[in-house]
Amino acid sequence: MPITYTSNEQVEVYRFSIPVTIGVPLLALFVQAFVPLRFPRFAVYLDLPLLVTIFFSMARRNPVAGLFTGAVIGLAQDMLGHNPIGIYGIAKTVVGYGASSLGVKLDVENAGARFLVTLGFYLVHSAVYFFVARELVNMTQTWSWLHGMLAGLANAALGVILYFLLDKFKQRT
Amino acid sequence: MESVLGRYRNLIILVGVLFLQVLGLATQVREDKRGGSDAQSTRLIRVWVVGAITPFERGLVWIQDGTGNIWHNYFYLRGVRAENRQLKEQIEQMRLEQVRLSEDAAQARRLQTLLAFKEQFISKTVAAQVIGSSGSDLSRTIYIDKGENAGIKRDMAVMTADGIVGKVLVVYPSVSQVLLINDQSSGVGAILEKTRLQGVLRGSANGEVILERVMSDEQVPVGETVLTSGGDQIFPKGLPVGTVDKVGNGKDLFLTIKVRPAANLSKLEEVLVLVEKQERQQTAEDSTRMRAADILAQRLPSVPEKPAADANAVGVTVPGTKPASATTEAKPAGTAASLNAKISSGASVAQKAPLAGQPAKATGVASSGQKSPSTNAAAPGAAKPVPSQTKTDNAPKKPAKPASTPPTTPSAAQTSPTAVPQSSPPNSQRPANESSPQ
Question: Are B202 and B187 spatial neighbours (Cβ–Cβ below 8 Å)?
């Protein structure tokens, strides 16, 4: 049975089947954990779970659904590491909420908008993670605009491609 | 009120979810500060996620290895013959090197015996395959395909043939999480090989390995090897860590040294988990029968030996000692004497005994065996057979007369630890000092 979410009548709201809803985030986590073994720079610049969070949140266009999507994916990502659970969870909750809220108001179907939205949310995600890790968990963190922008651009580029692939799984409500 | 709740419903839910997560975060941080482990309190949910992800990773690694093996073992064998020849030559060279090193190691063990030195030995390791990572550059951990079922426990050292990798952080039934040494929460006791400066190895936020807490009163050359100091009680002493890459000034009077890890931490495939290490003290029986002093005497330049006739003339026999085979004892005693004569007491020691007017039958060295505690100390060793080379050298020189046998009283044996270090190289006492935890 497909999962459906509340819709705003003025914008198109999509739903996803259960296998896609569970499988795609799991696959993203799996790839994120596995690929760095062969390509170490992958984890430094790319964040597949973030891209999946943004995609599902924007497609569902429901802030509550978006924030829960972000929270679940973020917490799962936290569990693969050794840092306290919740740092990615909080960052991706904010991103999920923001992406859904933005999806309600803007058309985020074209590639250019998706690129900019992904770049922006990558920076938001990094900023929230930086704040939480540094101020709440007292981890040593260094902020680099150069790294942030490079990684943001890399994620945005990958995101545009990934979103077009994931568009195939969209089901109209 | 209801309208406010309805209007800000989404925002309220967002704040609620964030609040819950912050609460959970605070609980974990608090437990960490109290010395608790987040691995214990959050174990179950971590187990779920790790259990969901790692089987796929394990399967993919298996398929990848299988495919790679088929290709490398059956299809792609170009140049193997030449490589084989090259490797055989390398093995021959390494055998020669091994002989030399084992000699040195044996000597070191003998000296450690005499210094009552306790050493940690790697007695058992488990090979494991790296199957995954945390997927984040802010948590530098890897997953290996061996867990509790393979005898792995928390805080075990993980290494490769090149150098140390990290330590086991969380253990699941069939998988373990390993904290790499370049993670900012890791810490390893390390020592610089030549300058012998000690410090603490830490990871940085950007994945570099930094050696901290090194006093800045000495120059540290770039390229110097960094080894484990054993002070962390996780890694045995002397394992390679890496090389000095860059030296800079740190806080206060300390240097901050960037270290290039010996093991390639970003491309790990197989690792070894140190599941068993032993701390044992060498005993006399452990070491070979030869005395440490004899070994040193063979290696160090010694006082030229006198001709056999002269030796008989000045030799003495210690009263009350048991006769022993001259062929087995003459040379070691002689070498020990020459060593003692050179280092401890001077050459005159060998000539003092005859002045005592004691019956002389053995070489002059026997007298030193009586006078010098170091020779007495080595009594148990001296009573044993020595390498054949020493026998043949002295057999023609000496008739089969009773030679001096050092006393076997406990008091004599007890002098050994104090006697031999005198003849040790100046840096031989250094390991004993460094063996203490930081």
Answer: yes
